[in-house]
Specification:
The protein contains eight helices and 21 strands. With 462 residues, the chain is mainly β. The longest helix is centred in the last third of the chain and has 17 residues.
């Protein structure tokens, strides 16, 4: 096992292209840059490779968008955590940006994806399933007729037996539908299905929050790429670039139902209607949040002050987003649409009325609350869905003894991540988007504060 010499060092162990003609070519001497992308909101990973070609491989292999890529890259001293696509290969699906660098040398970019993504676009699922949601997801992922994947699947077990029918849907679309009506054994409806370089994940957001943090990063000590320092431990924790991309977007919080929403259900079995509402403050502690067991550090990002003279708060306007959903539930809570062979109902009815509002609100929180964009020194242990600590230094004058932002420092969930292996600079960097849905401390609150406005308005007739 080799020792790391500087922060951002990486080791390319294998990079080959396998053409549809059967030719295999080593690309390790021709590659300029490799990028790999992953997100907790995407079903599959993607990537690209920039090639400096002196052998006219596009015509001689040829490269036509039906090639396979084997790739293995690691961080020295932690080779057991390598990004490894030597067994589960990547696929080339597009070639673009072809240009001549010098006479006899052509530069182009190969766009990569997974076999599961392409297979998911080629196949359709037309079948009924009877099982727990996580078992159905695994069945679709493993079935040779559908995604036919042999990759690792990280699963958080779901509860209740369901009867689900896929009416000629693509596999990923069907799995996304399953996510919307699945509850974990702990009662969480916030399931995600996504892929990282380590495999597929069918897990709730709360399950991600339960993980320990993988590293601590400080915005007060921005790094540099001008030298390869020997103080590797300090450099690995140093942020190269930092920016905020979102900070409590009130308009989007209203329009996405993050603050308040309503669902009207029509029970076609009992011929009844029902109404359920979601309120940001009222439901804030219903499910575990970012700090999981340390609830004192999980506080709303908005204040519960009255907005008008009627005492309305941000969650009072549940008509802002309204959904209508059909259901059919027997008096025992079973699914009235599906019967067993003995004419009894033992399948769980859909619970979209219990999951939809809080799922939409949770996803909106991760997208429109506090979002940071970081450039970090690369290592192959970071991937989407992991937790990190970020210390945000106070900007301007400190008004207390805290050198770090008392509201926004702390735990963050990595939502999106891009590995960049730059062979010209010989460096590995990671671009990270991470989200924080809560504040470490409660916001100061004055309940007598409301919108200043005159007692009456004027109507002017023209």
């Amino acid at each position: 096992m080799s020792q790391i010499q500087y922060a951002g060092e990486f080791k390319l162990e294998e990079l080959k292209i396998i053409s549809s003609s059967g030719n295999v070519v080593d690309l390790s001497k021709s590659v300029l840059q490799i990028d790999l992308y992953e997100s907790i909101f995407k079903n599959s990973i993607s990537g690209s490779i920039v090639i400096a070609d002196t052998n006219n491989m596009v015509n001689n292999l040829p490269i036509i968008g039906q090639e396979y890529i084997t790739l293995k890259v690691s961080t020295p001293s932690i080779e057991n955590e390598a990004i490894d696509f030597t067994e589960h290969v990547l696929q080339v699906f597009q070639i673009n940006a072809r240009s001549d660098l010098t006479k006899g040398t052509e530069i182009y970019e190969l766009h990569l994806t997974t076999s599961e993504f392409l297979r998911g676009e080629r196949t359709k699922v037309s079948k009924s399933f009877t099982n727990t949601p996580h078992a159905i997801v695994e069945s679709v992922l493993r079935d040779p007729l559908y995604l036919n994947s042999k990759k690792s699947l990280f699963v958080e077990e779901s509860d209740q037996i369901k009867r689900l029918i896929s009416p000629l849907m693509s596999p990923f679309r069907f799995i996304s539908r399953i996510c919307k009506d699945s509850f974990s054994a702990n009662g969480s409806p916030h399931y995600l299905f996504y892929e990282t370089t380590k495999g597929f994940n069918f897990r709730t957001i709360e399950n991600l929050y339960q993980q320990p943090t993988i590293g601590t990063y400080d915005t007060g000590d921005i790094g540099t790429l001008e030298s390869k320092t020997q103080n590797i431990e300090v450099e690995m924790k140093r942020i190269i670039e930092f920016s905020r991309s979102s900070n409590s977007d009130m308009a989007m919080s209203i329009m996405t139902g993050m603050l308040a929403s309503k669902i009207v259900t029509h029970d076609i079995y009992n011929k009844t209607f029902g109404v359920k509402t979601y309120g940001y403050f009222n439901d804030f502690t219903k499910y575990s949040r970012l700090n999981y067991n340390d609830s004192s550090k999980d506080n709303p990002v908005y204040n519960e002050i009255p907005l008008d003279e009627f005492g309305n708060t941000l969650e009072s306007f549940d008509d802002a987003v309204v959904y209508v959903h059909p259901t059919s539930i027997t008096p025992t809570g079973a699914d009235a649409q599906h019967m067993n062979s003995d004419n009894t109902q033992n399948y769980s009815a859909n619970r979209v009325a219990d999951s939809l509002l809080t799922r939409r609100a949770k996803l909106a929180e991760l997208s429109h609350a506090e979002t940071l964009n970081l450039i970090l020194q690369g290592n192959t242990t970071l991937f989407a869905g992991r937790m990190i600590d970020v210390n945000l230094t106070v900007t301007g004058i400190q008004h207390d003894t805290n050198s770090f932002d008392k509201f926004y420092s702390g735990k963050y969930l990595i939502t999106d991540l891009r590995h960049t292996f730059n062979f010209v600079a010989d460096r590995h960097e990671i671009a990270v988007s991470c989200a924080k849905e809560t504040l470490n401390e409660k916001l100061p609150l004055n309940r007598v504060v409301s919108e200043p406005k005159p007692k009456s308005g004027k109507t002017i007739i023209l």
